Amino acid sequence: MNWSLFWDLTVSGVTLGSVYALVALGYSMVYGILKLLNFAHGDVYMIGAFMGWFALHWLGGPVNPSVTAALVVVFMFAFAMVACGGLGVVIERFAYRPLRNAPRIAPLISALGVSFFLQNSALLLFGANFRDYDTFDLIGAKTYHYKDIFLSVPQILTIVSAIGLMIGLTLLVARTKIGKAMRATSFDREAASMMGIDVDRVIASTFFIGSALAGAAGVMFGLVFGQIYHFMGFLAGLKGFTAAVIGGIGSIPGAMLGGLLVGLAESYATGYLPQGSTFQNLYVFALLIAIIIIRPQGLLGKADVNKV
Amino acid sequence: MRRRATAIAALSVLAALASVAAASATVDRAAAPSAAASLDRQLISCGKTVTMGMLAPITGPAASLGKPQVDWAKYYVAQHNKANKKLKLRLQFGDTVLGGPGGTAEAVKAAQSFGANVLGVVGPAGSNEVKATTATLKGAGVGFVSGSATNTTITTDGTRTGFFFRTVPPDAQQSKDVSNYIIKKLKAKNVYIIDDQEAYSTGLADEVQSQLKAAGVSVSRDGVSQQQSDFSSLIAKIPRTTDVVYIPWQLPPKGKALGEQMRSAGKGNIKLMGSDGLYDPDFASVGTNVYDSFFPVSPKSATVKNFTKAHGGNGEFFGAPSYAAAQVVGGAIDRACKNGTASRAEVRAQIMKTKLKTSVLGIPISFDKNGDIRRKKFGIWKSNGTNFLPVG
């Protein structure tokens, strides 16, 4: 067993999985409340990556930032999260709310439309060129290692902040008033409304939080992998969605688990399977199909019980 | 009874439509070659200004390669027009969006956008684009000269002989020079080759791989799509004992991303070698152990010096062979237009007769029967952290 390869692949898989987990959370939260597959979510993630890039350059760029690197990173995350949160609320208000009582196919089509709208708007506004985060210029090229396990600063930053955000979200949903309202709305929207919960506000809050997490994931991707472009949300959105389904769509811990599994599967497939780097997506989506066949509700999802 | 009559009438209409469609298709098929042939020999009045087409990646992931090509071609046209009072050249651009999500379809669309007034074309940049646009350009009788498409077989397979030419040596030469440098100068024992799954890249990677293996070097091979930005798991597979990672790719930002992610994974000490497609400051910025194979552009040439001065000190060397390509097409148009009219066939014939004793590439330019330049040479360049400097 080549342990060096194993640990390299594991670190890479966990880093990527952390990004996917944050994207998956947005899918899961929205599905949990609205039973809507928000296909525009991957593009919100892409917008988040661009917002982080703009924030970085407003503060002087990676080579000569006007404040310390730590502050730049914090501002990049904060700006991308707030901007994407706001974008999520706008999308919900104008693309999904008018269709809330329409047949389920209508908001799905609307979500696809929003996805293409965001992608092409980004192409129009930001151009087709790749943008570099130049992370090394910003936070240095230092790599920490323990025996065969190598971790760079951006990787540590990504894993730690993803864990932090997931813990924060779990606490928010479990222990706050808005979290309780979100759970109630997810359980039975009509009953929640009759109990005095402002359902519109709860749904808007859910979109804000889910989109803010996608924004954070976009910045993480830029910091770790260096480059962003207008089309990056498509595949990441699909992987995030896959992670949400594997974990059990609607389940927050499921989304986290699914994200990590997809990240690790992608990484191990690249490392160990024949022509893995070429066909990694084939392996990841085969895993999705296998899990869906064995456990249609996902690993941590609950099976729907319908009265007949 | 009425229903039956309606059905018969409907069938008759359908049959009539089908026969009209078949007839028009027959006419189209018959007309196609003669239309192309007539376009080929159609004489265009040169007047005071003639149009030269240029296909380049003006936007998209490879826009950083397209910019120097466009800048150098414009520079040639400006110089030409300054020196020629009677006949001016005008450039008409087509954006091929090399490496974009639409594949080579954009290149074909760009080639189709050229009107009958375009007498010759500079470009396209990529070998796959050359293959994709051949039907359109050859069908219209246009000669096209690329300043960067290096895939070996695009000149030798006979598909575009007499129509396609290039001012850069083929990959067969590039692979030989790269392998020699890796074996003799870098003295590498373990090499990891990663192609980008495109024709240009796999062809070059295959050739380097077989030459290194023949010299007893241990070679591992992998491939990765250029739609990907995360190379971390691929990098994990590269053993730490590797001496050189060879990436014959076409998108400098991707080469940069791989280099930076290698540093991030603690593998920044491994030498990284790119090919002509990665010859860009973006790739050079990865670090000082980055190498590249590129055309032997002479920084001492007066044209290169003047261009560099006119462009704020940036020589944009990747575009220099496109200057030579524009020089070839422009010169051919000048000669064909001597009697006031020219056809695309005449321009092609003049391209074939090109004989430039000196060029910005430091070598004379004339073409063999396949459309390749006769004097073939690649240079090896090393990064100083910002730009590439010649080392071999």
What is the secondary structure topology, with strand pairs?
The complex is a heterodimer of chains A (308) and B (392).
Chain A: H1 3-34, H2 41-58, H3 69-96, H4 105-126, E1 131-132, H5 135-139, E2 143-146, E3 149-152, H6 153-175, H7 177-187, H8 189-194, H9 199-225, E4 227-228, H10 232-247, H11 252-272, H12 276-294
Antiparallel strand pairs in A: 1-4, 2-3
Chain B: H1 2-41, E1 44-45, E2 49-56, H2 63-83, E3 88-95, H3 105-112, E4 118-122, H4 127-139, E5 143-146, H5 153-156, E6 164-166, H6 171-185, E7 190-195, H7 199-214, E8 218-223, H8 232-237, E9 244-247, H9 252-264, E10 271-274, H10 281-284, E11 290-294, H11 302-310, H12 320-336, E12 341-342, H13 344-352, E13 379-383, E14 388-390
Parallel strand pairs in B: 2-3, 2-4, 4-5, 5-6, 7-8, 7-9, 9-10, 10-11
Antiparallel strand pairs in B: 1-12, 11-13, 13-14
Q: Could you describe the 3D structure shown?
A:
The complex is a heterodimer of chains A (308) and B (392). With 308 residues, chain A is mostly helical. Chain A has a single domain, classed as ABC transporter involved in vitamin B12 uptake, BtuC, CATH 1.10.3470. Chain A has twelve helices and four strands, in the order H-H-H-H-E-H-E-E-H-H-H-H-E-H-H-H. In chain A, the strands form two sheets. Chain A has a two-stranded antiparallel sheet. A two-stranded antiparallel ribbon of chain A has the order 2-3. In chain A, helix 1 runs antiparallel to helix 11 and helix 3 packs across helix 9. The mean pLDDT of chain A is 89. Chain B is α/β, with parallel strands linked by helices and 392 residues long. Chain B has two domains: 189 residues, Response regulator (Rossmann fold), CATH 3.40.50.2300; 134 residues, 3-Layer(aba) Sandwich (Rossmann fold), CATH 3.40.50. In chain B, the strands form three sheets. Chain B has a seven-stranded mixed sheet. Chain B has a five-stranded parallel sheet with strand order 3-2-4-5-6. A two-stranded antiparallel ribbon of chain B has the order 1-12. In chain B, strand 2, helix 2 and strand 3 form a beta-alpha-beta unit. In chain B, helix 2 crosses helix 12. The radius of gyration of chain B is 24 Å and the shape is elongated. About 5% of the residues of chain B have low confidence. Classes of the chains: A mainly alpha (308), B alpha/beta (392).
